[in-house]
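pls design
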């Protein structure tokens, strides 16, 4: 790197600095010029251009008649004064009031630059923003900018911001909520209900605490009371605890200041009231009475609701003193908590909540017992909180109830599945049995032919061997063998058979077998049918005496066998 040489370059740099960086004094410019001698000219030139460019983009500029220049943002203009907001640091701003007579020139920033800065401040959007607020932001911000400044150098960036806001609006309309940059779906809100509500409660506490006045501090402590009563054990509780440890001292300082001058303020009010005419005095007294009545009604409502941090009457010395005692006592009480142990416990309980959501109930029960054993106070008494960590509305109690309900639901589903499986098995067996009884098993073509032939042969042999009486007895369900035994016993044990006559021999001739030519009645059914018909015919012939000789009838009626 070459050193910077030549006095003429130093003069040029000095002129450039003093002319472009108006807020910088001449002495400062001389210091910068001497410092620049150590660097390369190109490096210095680029640095100065960038620095000068940023100075031009800082906002409005007011040139005073004494040569001083102020850069910032003009917030108010009138015929006699101008207000300009100066940026001291990223978090500190100062507003100055400049008389018109001291102003030599006002140079305002380009309108699209001013509008773009406002749009940049819109993102990121805060937590719990509703759909109507998103619609208003889009319409009054990016949409209005693009209509007014379509050719601005910031148009592309504004379009990106508008697309981001449109996307977030779509999520809100579908039931999502935004909590500190996290988007939670409706399903997650239902699954982790206690966790979500506790985060919302803390955000409310944080929002009112930022007001910086005693009313905001009291509202913040009300929110902390709700967190402690309903959401002990959640991550919101140690966060609210740390915030309360900041709010209470600030509230105490304001209360002490109010207590010092409360008598003076009341006396000043009485003096001012005495200076008024009778009508105005009556109006002031009536307005003060309405305020006192509203305060007493609100105080009674707070006490009835069990609210610890009741309304404060800033004109009452007794009310301020009571509040100082309350704030001091609460500060000492919450200092007994151990924030680090509470954070460890909260992390374990969140893990339990996630395990329950995944259905890992056994592991969740183990982790829940571990979290329950953590002591959340600095003392050695063993009590972890005013609720003992197991209050009716604590996170531990909520998770215990949730775990029990999920386990019971799981057992009920398993029992229902077992009952359904048993019913299906019983129905399947019943159906199978019914089909088996109502439909004979199908035979294969090869086996069917063999079985049919065997049945025909067996039927033919049975027809040749059995008498008509035996066939009739078989068809009627009687056992012919039993009948023969009974007849033998009646005859005194004789086993001789009766000689057959000609007619019986003629009747025992083989029955012609019909040939199954396919179609119609099955051949296997013809034999039983013909047999039954023949038996019925024989019985009828015998009953009416047709075809039997008279001598034969006498011989049968003689009683005994030869």
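designed seq:
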């Amino acid at each position: 790197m070459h050193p910077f040489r030549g006095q003429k370059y130093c003069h040029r740099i000095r002129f450039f600095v003093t002319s472009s960086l108006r807020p910088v004094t001449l002495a400062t410019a001389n210091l910068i010029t001497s410092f620049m001698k150590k660097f390369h000219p190109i490096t210095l030139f680029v640095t100065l251009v960038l620095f000068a460019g940023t100075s031009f983009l800082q906002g409005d500029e007011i040139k005073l008649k004494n040569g001083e220049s102020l850069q910032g943002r003009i917030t108010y203009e009138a015929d006699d004064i101008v207000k300009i907001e100066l940026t001291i640091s990223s978090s500190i701003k100062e507003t100055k009031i400049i008389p018109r007579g001291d102003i030599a020139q006002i140079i305002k920033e380009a309108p699209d630059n001013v509008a773009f800065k406002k749009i940049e401040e819109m993102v990121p959007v805060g937590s719990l923003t509703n759909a109507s607020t998103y619609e208003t932001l889009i319409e009054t911000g990016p949409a209005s900018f693009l209509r007014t400044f379509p050719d601005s150098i910031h148009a592309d960036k504004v379009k990106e911001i508008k697309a981001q806001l449109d996307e977030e609006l779509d999520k809100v309309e579908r039931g999502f909520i935004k909590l500190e940059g996290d988007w939670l779906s409706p399903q997650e809100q239902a699954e982790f209900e206690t966790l979500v509500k506790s985060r919302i409660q803390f955000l409310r506490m944080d929002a009112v605490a930022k007001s910086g006045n005693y009313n905001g501090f009291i509202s913040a402590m009300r929110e902390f009371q709700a967190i402690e009563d309903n959401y002990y054990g959640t991550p919101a509780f140690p966060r609210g605890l740390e915030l309360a440890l900041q709010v209470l001292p600030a509230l105490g300082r304001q209360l002490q200041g109010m207590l010092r001058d409360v008598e003076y303020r009341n006396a000043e009010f009485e003096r001012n009231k005495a200076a008024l005419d009778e009508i105005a005095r009556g109006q002031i007294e009536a307005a003060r009475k309405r305020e006192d009545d509203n305060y007493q009604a609100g105080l009674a409502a707070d006490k009835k609701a069990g609210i610890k941090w009741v309304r404060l009457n800033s004109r009452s010395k007794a009310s301020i003193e009571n509040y100082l005692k309350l704030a001091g006592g609460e500060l000492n009480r919450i200092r007994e908590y151990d924030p680090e142990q509470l954070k460890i416990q909260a992390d374990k309980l969140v893990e339990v909540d996630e395990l329950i959501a995944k259905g890992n109930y056994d592991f969740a029960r183990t982790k829940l017992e571990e979290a329950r054993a953590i002591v959340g106070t600095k003392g050695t008494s063993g009590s972890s909180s005013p609720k003992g960590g197991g209050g009716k509305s604590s996170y531990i109690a909520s998770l215990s109830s949730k775990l029990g309900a999920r386990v019971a639901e799981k057992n009920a589903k398993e029992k229902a599945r077992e009952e359904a499986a048993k019913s299906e098995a019983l129905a399947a067996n019943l159906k199978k049995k019914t089909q088996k009884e109502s439909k004979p098993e199908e035979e294969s073509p090869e086996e069917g032919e063999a079985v049919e032939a065997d049945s025909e042969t067996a039927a033919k042999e049975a027809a040749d061997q059995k008498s008509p009486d035996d066939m009739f007895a078989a068809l009627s369900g009687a056992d012919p063998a039993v009948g023969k035994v009974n007849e033998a016993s009646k005859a005194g044990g004789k086993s001789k058979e009766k000689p057959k006559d000609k007619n019986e021999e003629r009747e025992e001739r083989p029955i012609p077998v019909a040939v199954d030519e396919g179609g119609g009645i099955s051949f296997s059914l013809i034999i039983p049918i013909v047999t039954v018909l023949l038996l019925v015919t024989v019985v009828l012939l015998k009953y009416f005496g047709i075809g039997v000789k008279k001598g034969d009838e006498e011989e049968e009626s003689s009683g005994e066998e030869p």
